[in-house]
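Lab manual, section 2.4: Encoding a predicted structure.

Procedure: take the sequence of the chain (512 residues), apply the prediction step described in section 2.3, and record the output as structure tokens. A sample record is shown.
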Amino acid sequence: MGVTSDQPTAATEISVPLVSRRIRRVLEQAGDIPAIEFEDRELTWSQVAEFARSLASLVKAADPGGRSAALVFRNRPATPSAMIALLAAPRSVLMVSGIQPTLSLCSDVRTVRPSIVIADATAWTPQLEETVRELGAAGIQIGEDEHGLAVSVRQGLARARSDKQPDSDMAILVPTSGTTGPPKRISITWKWLERFVRDVDAPVVGGRAFIHAIPLGTVGGVLTMLPWGTRPLTMALMERVDVSRWADLVERHKPEYAGLPPAGLHTLLEVRPPKEKFASLKAFVTGSAPLDPVVADGLEEAYGRPVFLSYGSTESGVVSNWPRDASPELRRAKRGSSGRVLPSVEVRILDPETWEPLPVGQVGIMEINNPDARFSGPDGWMRTNDLGRLDEDRFLYVEGRVDDVIIRGGLKVPLIEVERVLSEHPAVARCGATGLPDARLGQVPAALVVLKPDLEPQPGEADLVVWLRERLAPFKVPVRVLIVDDIPLTPMMKTNRKALREYFAAPAPTKT
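Recorded output:
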């Protein structure tokens, strides 16, 4: 893999970023240390290193002078292995989510306009191949076989014609979640990555495993793969959230803290694996979306472990989290909070109509000033699309998104409130609310519901509407409630309100 010393000359220091040198060291020295545990298989760092060498050779042959490649992300072993292979090369990684329909994926590839596209067999559809040819790019297929990890050139896509080069400072181009429209892309520089690896000087001995249950193709995935590829660690990787499998992994690897997205914790409370599986845990951790306090309370009651919620985003970085030594009294006093705002971060809450700061305790649009943020305005502040409030102790309460509030005939309807009331029905397993266009009222609420399968009799849609009318103001009651098999989520396990609206293709009746 080239450089073997971690103490390079001045010329090497400039040409090979620190993160690349650290990854190379792991690939050269980690040997038979377990690298990835996936389903019932285990891959060693030697296998990952062999794959990385093969991929780097094909990439160089396909685009000798290039500095970047698009990588289509899936939660399978070849993806993180390809990620660190590219960073070790070093090549910039243009991240493309693999959790999307083919046409959307092709649109993303056209947007980043790479010289090389790297994806597994499931992504290599005829539409993607045609897109790659149109761009004059090369195509490389990655995956797993009976021997471990596999890589090959796609037929007819061996050489790139494009001479497009990225910004030389860019290491990774990360997509945001795209909850309410086309995802934005945030550039992470090589220099920014250094702070995650500059203190990693320990011998390459491995030994610690962690469980990865969120999509790799996010900033959270990036910040997981970097420590994994530079320590080295063992990644217990899950392709999709399976709470029973996750509980088994926690029992085997015995971490002190382990996390799932809020939707996963909701399912965990429904499934309720045996308590002894979580004997090693001091707390559950979560983030990426608000968590119903009822779920947090239920998990603590069932397992005797608190749930620590944090807040942050690709653009803003980490904004708040719970202190690990939080007492039961503090947790009760700050129930529903996403933790205390970090000392280095400023948060202000703005009135959405006047844009003036609001006093403590009032809900408004959140603005963040974080010196570690990857995106901010010229004055250092970044305006989010999230609604929140601060208390007198700087504990942050996230109350949803601006998009989570619709205006029905001049009256505000918080969709999260509709979901909260629906979720309190004893037969409701999951639910999601959205806004539908209405010629007279502007927007009206509607909801999808997944019922618990083991309860009889099961309510009908009319029964659920009656439940809501008894608990919500009339203008907040959905005009339509549909019972479905599943709730569409974004890659970060948030309710996908745009996808929800597609369930309501028929015109919604107007009710007042």
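Check your result against the sample. The chain has 15 helices and 26 strands.
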